[in-house]
Amino acid sequence: MSFGDKLKIIMLGPPGAGKGTQAALLSEKYGIPHISTGQIFREQIEAKTGLGLKAKKYVVKGELVPDEIVIEMTIKKLESLDPNKGYILDGYPRTINQAKALDNSKFSPDIVIEVYVDEDECVKRLSSRRYCPKCGATYNLIFNPPKNDEICDICGSKIKQREDDKEEAVRARFKEYHIKTKPVLDYYKAQGKLYRIDGKGSISEVSKRINSLIESLLKKD
Ligand code: ADP
Ligand code: ADP
Ligand code: ZN
Question: Which of 66, 93, 144, 163 could lock 99 by a disulfide, CB 3.0 to 4.6 Å apart?
Answer without folding.
Answer: 93
